[in-house]
Amino acid sequence: MVFLFEKDGHKYYKFPKNTNLPLDRFSEMMALQELLSSGLSGSEVEKILEVMEKAIHSGLANPQNSAVISTCVHLIRQRKSNIIHRDLLLNIAAIWIVRDDEPIESITLDIHKSKLEVFERMTKEDSHGFFTTLELPLLVPLVNMSPTDFKELWENNANQMWTLTQQLTLLNSNLVTSSQKSRQRSMNN
Questions:
Q1: DSSP of 109-120, one letter per residue?
Q2: How many structural domains compose the chain?
Q3: Chain segment 96-121, per-residue pLDDT in tens
Q4: How far apart are CA 36 and CA 79, in angstroms?
Q5: 130: burial class by Cβ within 10 Å (0-12, 13-18, 19+)?
Q6: 98 strand-pairing partners
Q7: Which domain holds residue 140?
Q8: For the chain, where are the alpha helices, taking DSSP H only?
Q9: 2-36 tens-digit pLDDT
Q10: How many CB atoms neighbour CB 17 within 10 A?
Q11: How far, CA to CA in Å, does 14 sit from each of 9, 107, 126, 131, 184?
């Protein structure tokens, strides 16, 4: 392992160049790469699917519920153009970087979460510098961009994540359930 830095009493290491990740880490890495290409984190995909499922269960015969699903599809397509996704990049770093108290061959969930917190703090200081220091093969195209461009994309993604959460909350509140339809019918009669 190659020493990277020391932070909060722990030493952090990365796998040497031309070294394969252990199978568990590699599997997680492949899943994150897939999500990275979609521009959505796993939790964001899950939130969108939950809204879509509620719309389906509430009844697609109602045009308002159909519009909610259509909007969710639009949100997914819109996010595919997302170049940088903060959560995914931090998770990729947490897979490639091994803390001194975790097993090399697998990911320990509590240590992984702790590393994410440390990395988040470090990226607040200098997001481009943090990822440049890591020299992770997968991230070479991103760290080759200027620090200013990287910072702009990094901050833009935080805004996009917040906006997506707000949009999903609004969509959820716009669903028309069968009980609401019944009440509307009884009020009209």
A1: HHHHHHHHHHHH
A2: 1
A3: 999 999 999 999 999 999 999 999 99
A4: 10
A5: buried
A6: 13
A7: 2-188
A8: 23-38, 42-58, 63-79, 86-96, 109-134, 140-143, 147-173, 178-188
A9: 999 999 999 999 998 888 889 999 988 888 888 87
A10: 9
A11: 17, 14, 19, 12, 60
CA distance 42 to 32: 8
Global confidence as pTM: 0.74
C-alpha gyration radius of the chain: 21
Amino acid at 159: N
Q: What is the DSSP string of 25-37?
A: HHHHHHHHHHHHH
Residue with tokens 């699903």: 69
Contact 87, 123 (CB under 8 A): no
Q: What is the pLDDT of residues 123-178, one digit of tens each?
A: 888 888 888 888 887 777 777 888 888 888 888 887 888 888 888 888 888 877 64
Q: What are phi and psi of 4, to 5 degrees?
A: -110, -55
pLDDT given for residue 182 in this prediction: 47
Q: How far apart are the first and last CA of the chain?
A: 74
Backbone angles phi, psi at 60, to 5 degrees: -80, -10
Judged by DSSP in three states, 106 sits in coil
